[in-house]
Amino acid sequence: MNRTASSTIRVADLRKGDKVADAIFLVETANFKQTRNQKYFIQMSLRDSSGIIKAIRWEATSKLYESFGVDDFLQVNGRVEEFQGQLQLIVDGFERVESNDVDFTKFLPASEFDLDELEKELDQAVAEVHDPQIRELLRRIVESPEIRAGLRRCPAGKALHHAYLGGLLEHICSLLRASRSIAELYTELNRDLLYAGAILHDIGKVRELSYTSNFRYTDSGQLLGHIGLGLVLVNDMAREVPHFPKDKLLQIQHIVASHHGIPEYGALKLPMTAEAIAFHYLDNLDAKMATVRAVEKELPRDEDRGGNLSKWSDFKPHLNRKLYFPGKED
């Protein structure tokens, strides 16, 4: 039976056959294309806080395409169909909505954790640092108004992992817990340096990404990347700590520079200290597990299983595999 989806419907709740009436979505991508029959159409990705859906507006004109842009909000009427196993919104009509009339937080995904509690956890971890100079460096950075505000909104990634408001703060706190545990297991590791790595390895993302209306790269993010921006930020803040030792700063910067592991994945150098090696694997593990959780939330419906969630994900190019979730039921 067909349903009519109003403006309160979430992308995650859309089903094949639904009619969409006056639903408001954020434009993630938009392209003006031509069919083999020389007819024009608009191909879009529309999103809200629950997910993204592909959308098509057939028989479009260049004037219609130019009436809106990426990061605009559209009030949409249409119907949900299925194409190559994926839901697709066929747009019958749309109207641009002024951004001042929209609550942005309803259209961007957000961490499921209490950000106030995560902030307390971050502050407690800083207080646990034994080395007074490293502790002071971390305190100055996390209490900076720019960084504090950024951590509450900044994603840890634009698309691959923790790609939601507060994702960076969630990622940091997860790595602080992991650092605490691994330092107890491998006592040769310096826990203070691991904590510094957890807090600072992605701190440049606060400046790399724009997260006011949608997740985009800033100019400095495009030109320098979060590792470069992070190294500059850490160096500048270390100068404000009286007599901060160069060798400690170098070790912290090395963790930031090498946390991606290999140059092919963006590392400036291979990890060459015990803490840098350990932290690289912790960071990679946390990112991968966050990705697995995100994939599980997006499992398609399997008609062969009575419309229940599939045990298999679609092929994920960034993982170079499908993922299997045994025993997955609604």
What descriptive keywords fit this protein?
330 residues, alpha+beta, OB fold (Dihydrolipoamide Acetyltransferase, E2P), 2 domains, 5-stranded mixed β-barrel, 10 strands, 39% helix, 20% strand, elongated
Question: What does it look like?
Answer:
- The protein has 330 residues and is α+β, with helices and mostly antiparallel strands.
- The protein has 2 domains: 4-105, OB fold (Dihydrolipoamide Acetyltransferase, E2P); 108-293.
- The chain is built from 10 helices and 10 strands.
- The protein has helices spanning 62-65, 115-128, 132-142, 145-153, 167-185, 191-200, 205-208, 219-239, 246-258, 274-297, and strands spanning 4-5, 19-34, 40-48, 51-57, 73-83, 86-97, 209-210, 216-217, 301-302, 308-309.
- It has a 5-stranded mixed barrel with strand order 2-3-4-6-5.
- Helix 2 (115-128) runs parallel beside helix 5 (167-185), helix 5 crosses helix 10 (274-297) and helix 6 (191-200) crosses helix 9 (246-258).
- It starts with a strand and ends in a 21-residue tail after the last strand.
- 32% of the residues are buried.
- The mean pLDDT is 88.
| DSSP strand count | 10
Measured by DSSP, the beta-strand proportion falls in 15-25%
H-E string: EEEEHEEHHHHHHEEHHHEE
What is the total number of structural domains? 2
What topology emerges from the helices and strands here?
Blueprint lengths: L3 E2 L13 E16 L5 E9 L2 E7 L4 H4 L7 E11 L2 E12 L17 H14 L3 H11 L2 H9 L13 H19 L5 H10 L4 H4 E2 L5 E2 L1 H21 L6 H13 L15 H24 L3 E2 L5 E2 L21
Parallel strand pairs: 1-2, 4-6
Antiparallel strand pairs: 2-3, 2-5, 3-4, 5-6, 7-8, 9-10
Helix pairs in contact: 2-3, 2-5, 3-6, 5-6, 5-10, 6-9, 6-10, 8-9, 9-10
